[in-house]
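Thread: Modeling a multi-component assembly for a lab meeting

Hi all, long-time lurker, first post. My supervisor asked me to bring a structural picture of a complex we are working on to next week's group meeting, and I have zero experience with this. I have the sequence lines for every component (683 residues in total). Could someone generate the structure of the whole assembly? Inputs are pasted exactly as I received them:
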Amino acid sequence: MRQPHHAPRPLLEIRDLRVQFATPQGTATAINGVDLQLAAGQCLGILGESGSGKSVTARTIMGLLDTPPARVAGGEILLNGEDLLSIGAKRRRQLTGPCMSMVFQDALSALNPVHPVGRQIGELFRVHRGYSRKAAKAAAIEMMDRVRIPAAASRVNDYPHQFSGGMRQRIVIAMALALGPELLIADEPTTALDVTVQAQILELLKEQQAENNMGLILITHDISVVREVTDQVAVMYAGRIIEQGPTAQVLSAPRHPYTRGLAESVASEALKGHRLPAIPGSPPDLLNIPVGCSFANRCFLADEACTAAVPALEAISAGRQSACFHSQEVPSHAAYSH
Amino acid sequence: MPHTATEPRTGKTASGPIMELRDIRMHYPVARPLPFGAKKVLKALDGVDLQVPAGQTLGIIGESGCGKSTLARILSGLEKPSEGQVLFDGVDINELQRAERALMRRNIQLIFQDPYASLDPRMTIEQILLEPFEIHPDLVPRARRRAKIAELMELVGLNPDHLSRYPHNFSGGQQQRIGIARGIALNPRVLICDEAVSALDVSVRAQVVNLLQDLQQELGLTFVFIAHDLQIVRHISDSVATMYLGKVVESGSYDRVYEHSAHPYTQALLSAAPELRQGSSTPRELILLQGDPPSPIDPPTGCRFHTRCPIAQPSCAASEPRLDPLQGDHAARCFFPGPLNLGSG
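Re: Modeling a multi-component assembly
Sure thing. I ran the full set together rather than chain by chain. Output:
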C-alpha cells in the first residue's frame, strides 16, 4: 500500500524482508517476505505462534541476529528513511537508544547481574549524552520514578536480583525509554509475569507510549494482550504476514482462515461446556515450507489454487489486507465447528 | 485398594469428594544467608483444606509462588506434606504400606507442564508407554500390552505406526498427547494436570483441551486442573479454588467463583486478565493491585492479602480470616466478602 503524497513518511518501513537460518538439517526460512509500516505514535501488535517469525522480525530491526547462523537474504528496513540493514556498527550504536530500543521477555537476563540497576540506567546517559556520574544517577532515579518503582532514590544502588519480576521489567522499560526513543519494540514483555503484574506493565507501556508519542511494536502470542493495547495488528504465520489492519476489526471480523481460527479457539464464556473450535494440525516445518499457502494443509477453505501459488497480501478494504485467495468467503464459512 | 480397571466408571454426575486435603502444610527449610543467621522456612502450603469432587474438574488458580504446583505434588503423592492428611477414598495415602501405595499410585496420575522435559529423550514412544505396565505388571498381561498401547495412541489422536519414534520427532502438542497417553495408561481415577496446556501454542492448546474433555467423558476421570490461564480454567472447570500465598482464599462452583467472586483477590485476579474483561456478559472493571505478591518466607500477618488489598481495614492485619461458607459450597477467606465497591472502600 502506497502512502498518499501528503501523508507523513512512516517512522518504520519494512520492505520484503527475508531472513534464513543455517541449521544442520538445512536452511530454515524464518521470515519469508514481510512488509510492514508503522507511523509515529502508532501501536502495532505482531501476533503469531512460536516459529511464526515475530521475534526474528524484531531482532532483525534491532540488529540483534547472530550472523551466522542467521542471514538476511533480502529486503530493507527503513527507520526515518535510513536503511538499517546497510548501516555500520557505529551508526547502529548511535541509533540504538535515542531512536529505537527494545524490551525483552526475560528481564533478568536482559540486565547485568553484577551492576546496580541505577548504574545500568545511568550508563545510557553517560555514553550517549556525556553526563557526569552524579547527573547520570539523578537521571536514573528520575527514570525509575517515571516507571513507578516505589522509593526509587533508595533502590538505585540495588542489584537486579533484589527486585521482583515485575519491578525488573519496569527497570528494563526505564532503560528502553531513557533516551526518548521514537520506536520501542516490546517482545513478549509480559509473558513471564503473573496476571496482576501483567496488567500493571501493560498500563505502563500504554501510558508511556501516549505521553511520548512513540511508535510501539508489541510482539505477542496472546490475542487478548493485542486487543488490549494495540491500534493495528499484523498476524504472522510461517514467516509471512497473513492479515493486517485495525486491531478491533481484524479480531472481530477476521478475513483470513488462520486469524479466524485463532480468534475462535480462545475459550470464550459462550463455549463453556462445548468443544473448542480448534485449528487441526500444527504449524509447518520451517525447513520445509510447503509450496503455495503455508496454511493450506490446515485450512477449511483450501483448494488446488492454494497449494499451487502463494497468495499475496492484498488490500481487501480500507486499511485492511489479507493474504488469502478466499478472503471473501472467510466470514460466512462454517469453519472449524465441531 | 479395591478399585481396578474393571469397576464401572461413574459419569460427570457423580458427587462427593474422591480426594480430600485436610489442613495440609508444606514447609521447606531455606538455606541460611549467614552461618549463624536465623533458620527460615518457606511455607509453600500453610493450612489447605480442599475437596476434589469425583468425576468433575476442579480448577486451581493463583499467581506464581502461591503453592499451586506444591499442591499438585502432594495430591499425586510425589511429596509427603509436613503436616496434614491427603485422603483418597477416605484413606490417607501417606499412611499406606508399600503394596497398597503402589495400587494408590495407579489411581492418581500427573501430567506436567513441559511435554518434552517429561519424556525421556533416549526412549522410543513404545518404551515410554510400556514402562507403566512394567512397573505395574499385573494390570495387563505381557502379550496384550502392545495392543493396549496402540489403543492408547489412538485414544489421544496419534498414529500407532509412530510408536518406534523418539520424543524429539514430535511437535509440542503431540508430545503432550504422549504425556497424556502415559498418564491414562493405568486407568487412573484422578488426573492432575499441572499447567498441562500452558506451554502449547494457542491453536494447539484448544486441541489438547478438547482431548482432555473427551477423555474425561469416556473414562469418567476426575481432573485437578492447575493453570494460570484463567480462560482455560473457566472453560474446563466445574469448581474452582483460588490460592494466595499457600492458602485457599476462595472456593466454590465455577459460576460462583467467576461470576460472583467474594474475595477481593479473586476479583482483582480475574479483572486483571484482559481475556476475561473482553467480551464477557458481565463487564469487569480493571482492579490494579499494587506491587507483587509478598514472599512466602515472611508472609504478612493477619490476612495474607491485606498488603495489596483495596478494601483492607486495620483489623485485617491483626487477625486472620477463616475460609467461611457463604452460600452452598461457596466459601471465602475474607472479613468483608462480597462484590467490591471501590467507591466507598
